[in-house]
Amino acid sequence: MSSDEGNDGEIGGPQALRSMRRRNRAVAEREASRLARPEQRSGSAVLGHASRSKSAVTSTPFGWMMKSKTKIASATVDEEWCGPFSVARQMIAAREDAKKKREEEQQEREEEENGGGERHPLDEIMTEVDLEKKRKANPSMTWKGRRPAENESTRTKNYYVKRQKRFIREADDRMTGNVPTLFRICVDVLVEHFDSVEALGNVDSSIRRSICESLVASGKMNGAAFDALAESGVESLELVDCAEVTQDQLATSLESLVPAGLRALILNHSGRCFGPKAVNAIISCADVSSLFAISIGGAYLLTDTDASALIKATARTLSSIEFRASPLLGKGLLDSISTNFSSSCSGTLMELALEDINVSKESLLALGSSTDALRNLKSLSLRQIGALDDEVMASLLGPIEGSLEGIDLSDNVLVTDESLSCIRRCNKDGQLRALRLSGLKSLTAVGLEAFFTHNIPGLPNPPMLRKLDLSSCEASAVTDVVLDLAATASSMKKQRDSKVSGPTVSMGVSTMGGLVFVNISGSAVTDTGMESLAATSFSSLLELDVSFCSQISDKGLGYLVSKVHDGFSKLHVWGCAQLTDEFHDGHSRVDERGLEIVGVWMKNGTVRSVR
User: Fold this and answer.
1) Which of 58, 127, 208, 397 has CA 20 to 30 A from 285's CA?
2) Percentage of the chain with pLDDT > 70?
3) What ranges does the record list as Acidic residues composition bias (predicted)?
């Protein structure tokens, strides 16, 4: 070691020792305060990281002396202690201080608004008058649940115990009220012994569908069951699940069913069974075919060429086409539709439904602009079509002659407010009754308000809908104003000439009109929207979905249930944790069996009404 380093060690050594002694002395004094008798504490050196006022803990029954507490409380230095309990204690203290400060500031603002803290004898009367005006504008504020008052025995019960009692009560109501019908009993007995059934005979297609659903639910849908359901002579072959049906088996059945008068072919989850062989079986009988409806879902073996040939062979009688989740379909299918259903041919297409089909924008534009194949369309469903945008919608709706009764554009991310204008222009005759816009994230509140607003020059009146689905849109897009305009438009008395909006006319509200099925899940609708539904659709509403609508309270839903007719049968409230027992156990139909509430949340809510 050099001489310079030795000098540094001699100089630094005593200073380091003195610093260490000072720290040890402070630690000893601090620890002695917990173990020794209370006595006058020294005001000497205190560690900067120790907070005696917030974190020091004493083991003596007397604690520190009052003089010491006064000194520590009057200290101006903000000291902290690194222990976890002490940190939590400090955080709680800071939170309480912040809350107290906010309350004081709020009180000061209220005093300033009320005249600098001076109170007038009429202030209470004016407050009551304002509250009465608000109650008249929002009648749901006056709703009170029929829930019995709590006593000592009910107040001490666990919250989930109360919910369990409600569940048992609802289960008892279902057991006593829902007695199985004779039809249901017969179907269950038939399905239980279906292995012994050779043929169903002269059984209606709706009954065959019920039997098929029960077979699928019980796991008994196999090849033998298919042969019994697909008897020669049936008008409709409707299978909810074709997983156990082979392509050869289906082709053989179609060769006998089509000439015998098969009119509707509806296959869900068709998978491997509907492919080239099944298509060829239908084409071979095209001359005697009377098929008017084809609905195929999940046919991963069906190619674009086969689908095009199928449409061409059956276009003479076909009026309803639906293809879902068939990955090999594309341009050929659309070209065949536009060619075989144009005015130059004899085909008339009335229903078109495509879902999750890989088609290009050019093919969709060609379908709407090249021919008038869609001129007689009454129902258009284009779900989850990646290329569908506003330009395509304008092209498709242009040739339609105002006969549309239902539109479904769910889950098309490129569709914006411009398509709403196209839909309203297309509704020349006012025939539109069902509109599904679920999952359209590009829609805005301004666009929806304009769509449902009356008396816009150059546009037909807004549609008088019976079914409205605005679920899973942007929460800010579906508001109380939008719902009020839609409900008002649906309940208006129909004018003689509804093609073009004229000057403002008082049409009034029809007691027979109004929304029937409403889905506004995930929206920003509040109790005001429930009041609008109660005022306009009280005689028509059957089903309402307000799942994940966090701003609707007990009072809004309770008021709605008390005002609508007894036909209101189903209410969806998934994710509405703000609803409490005041609604679930206190609405006006709690003792009736007609209203089913789906999705009751097992959590106590604290959110109040939002105005």
Assistant:
1) 208
2) 77
3) 105-115
